[in-house]
Write a structure and sequence with these properties.
With about 450 residues, the chain is an alpha/beta fold. Helix content is about 30%, strand content about 15%. The protein folds into two domains: about 30 residues; about 400 residues, 3-Layer(aba) Sandwich (Peroxisomal Thiolase, Chain A, domain 1), CATH 3.40.47.10. The longest helix is centred in the N-terminal third of the chain and has 16 residues.
Length: about 450
């Protein structure tokens, strides 16, 4: 049996490769199937495509501005990462589009981009083996509120006959299945701010276990509307730097005082390796590991020691068959809250020890805000591109160090950095924690190899 990392021969039943000292064989890990990422799609406050979003992130730009969708003057929070200029592509007909809530439209647009990026528009797949795993936090809450206001003004019987097929959380999954003929297993995930990453992880598990060969997975959110913004304003959880919107999201910075609501969608195409290779697909990266946990501590505040997050990180690394010494980059949850950023820093230190100080860590939310149920998916795409391009984007607005957040958060600008293994953290309300582990891919040799931990010098 060959080692999945170095290709060396591994004795039957051995858990670790005797040649590189770090990788379990596929047989030792239960013979599970390998999952790769072949397509990416995104709608974000920084752009209506993956490429536009990625280039603006590398330039350290901010998509956070004063809210334009409604007049926020009566609210203490008047800023957000709002999607602007959105027009749904021709993935569905005009009549269907008119009957879709915006969170479904965002999902269909991002999925269409990923579908085309993966080359699925030019090749047939088995619809029964194609899964959909989409998550959302707020779902169609905006549609419910709009319909309620209409009913109060005009009467209950004047609401749209399509109302009941617009707001449910599972409607994006339906629209993706219908538009792209992914007719196999279908599931909707809703785990607050961890939703998007968890949907990707659960889709990978579905593929690993043989229930599907390919999947559209990710998260979507349409949440810049008055009630949603007000809910975080009364909690005093959101930033009130209304006169400095581009500086409001400042993860790990000593002056951080709340997150910034954002919205959008991120969808990836996941495939079992053999399926991707058989159709000659381009592979961005391999999804090596996934795990989740719950703090069981408080509905809003994280465990101050970060113990729940640390459990998820350790479990994800174990699932990936890598150790703390193998991780080259961390894309943090880092929402710019005083408690959350501190707890995540504690969790990283607990898992990585002294090495935590030598791993570059960055927060995508510093530029796009917190996309809620879509955050983990969009940030996973950013992590995958970081791995592909061997570059780490900066944490915008990190200017004043917090003694309790003292790791390398990549201030100032992007940094060239070879990434073999990357960790993506996503944590959420209700104590939800989710972690994903991605590995670099070089088409000829499989996962890009690193020196074994026993022979690496830091």
């Amino acid at each position: 049996m060959g080692c999945r990392w170095c290709g060396g021969e591994v004795p039957r039943g051995a858990r670790y490769c005797p040649w590189c000292g770090r990788a379990r064989t596929a047989e030792a890990s239960g013979g599970r199937r390998r999952v790769v990422i072949t397509g990416l799609g995104a709608v974000t406050p920084l752009g209506l495509s993956v490429e536009e979003t990625w280039q603006r992130i590398l330039r350290g730009e901010s998509g956070i501005q004063r809210i334009e969708r409604f007049d926020p003057s009566d609210l203490p929070v008047q800023i957000a990462g709002e999607v602007r200029g959105f027009v749904l592509g021709d993935w569905v007909d005009a009549k269907t589009a008119r009957q879709m809530a915006m969170f479904s439209q965002y999902a269909v647009e991002a999925a269409g981009q990923a579908w085309r990026d993966a080359g699925l528009d030019s090749g047939a797949i088995d619809p029964a083996r194609a899964a959909v795993m989409i998550g959302t936090g707020a779902g169609g809450m905006a549609t419910i509120l709009e319909t309620h206001e209409l009913a109060l003004r005009r009467g209950l019987l004047r609401i749209s006959p399509h109302f009941m097929t617009t707001f449910p959380h599972n409607m994006p999954a339906y629209h993706l299945a219908q538009a792209f003929r992914f007719l196999g297993p279908s599931l909707t995930v809703s785990t607050a701010c961890a939703t998007g990453a968890q949907a990707i992880g659960e889709a990978a598990e579905m593929i690993r276990n043989g229930a599907a060969d390919i999947a559209l997975a990710g998260g979507t959110e349409y949440c810049v509307f008055p009630l949603f913004i007000a809910s975080f304003a009364v909690q005093r959880a959101a930033s009130t730097w209304n006169d400095r919107p581009e500086e409001a999201s400042r993860p790990f910075d000593a002056e951080r005082h709340g997150f910034v609501v954002g919205e959008g969608a991120g969808i990836v195409v996941l495939e079992v390796l053999e399926h991707a290779q058989a159709r000659g697909a381009r592979i961005y990266a391999e999804l090596l590991g996934y795990a989740s946990s719950n703090d069981g501590y408080h509905p809003i505040a994280p465990d101050p020691e970060g113990s729940g997050a640390a459990r998820a990180i350790r479990a994800a690394l174990a699932d990936a068959c890598v150790g703390p010494e193998d991780v080259d980059y961390i894309n943090a949850h880092a929402a710019s809250t005083p408690l959350g950023d501190r707890a995540e820093t504690q969790a990283i230190k607990a898992v990585f020890g002294e090495r935590a100080y030598r791993i570059p860590i960055s927060s995508t939310k510093s530029m796009i805000g917190h996309l809620m149920g879509a955050a983990g998916a969009v940030e996973s795409i950013v992590t995958i591109l970081s791995v592909r391009d061997a570059i780490v984007h900066p944490t915008r607005n990190y200017r004043y160090p917090d003694p309790e957040c003292d790791l390398d958060y990549v201030p100032v600008g992007p940094r060239r950095h070879t990434i073999r293994v990357a960790l993506k953290n996503s944590f959420g309300l209700g104590g939800q924690n989710c972690c994903l582990v991605f590995a670099a891919w070089d088409g000829a040799r499989g996962p890009e190899q690193s020196e074994p931990s026993s022979r690496r010098s830091e």
